[in-house]
Design a protein that fits this description.
Layout (H helix, E strand, L loop, with lengths): L4 E5 L3 H8 L1 H10 L5 E5 L5 H11 L4 E6 L1 H14 L4 E6 L8
Parallel strand pairs: 1-2, 1-3, 3-4
Helix pairs in contact: 3-4
């Protein structure tokens, strides 16, 4: 995993589950070989897009979204709007996680 990876966490997803996943997810990615790893957490609705856009602007082409359907949708839409090739990883942390 030598490609820059950016993880977008929604700490409020799943009644706080998203926040409890921060350290375990980062540890798992590091254990899998991610050496160029950065992350950010949302504070309010819509932060997912801003975090994703900033990561893409810095050259990250692997984005991992940790949250529920809303988090995933907002991250995916930001990638699509940017028009840049990027891999999207989804880690369920929301209440329903219907997509997963």
């Amino acid at each position: 995993m030598d490609q820059p990876t950016y993880v977008v966490f929604n700490p409020h997803a799943g009644k706080g589950r998203g926040g409890r996943l921060i350290e375990p997810v980062l540890a798992a990615l590091r254990a899998a070989g991610a050496t160029d790893l950065d992350h950010g957490s949302t504070a309010r609705k819509g932060d997912e897009e801003a975090l994703t856009e900033a990561a893409l602007a810095r050259g990250c082409r692997r984005i991992v979204a940790v949250g529920g359907d809303g988090t995933w949708s907002n991250v995916a839409n930001a990638i699509l709007r940017a028009g840049l090739p990027a891999d999207l990883g989804l880690i369920p942390g929301g209440t329903g996680c219907d997509l997963a």
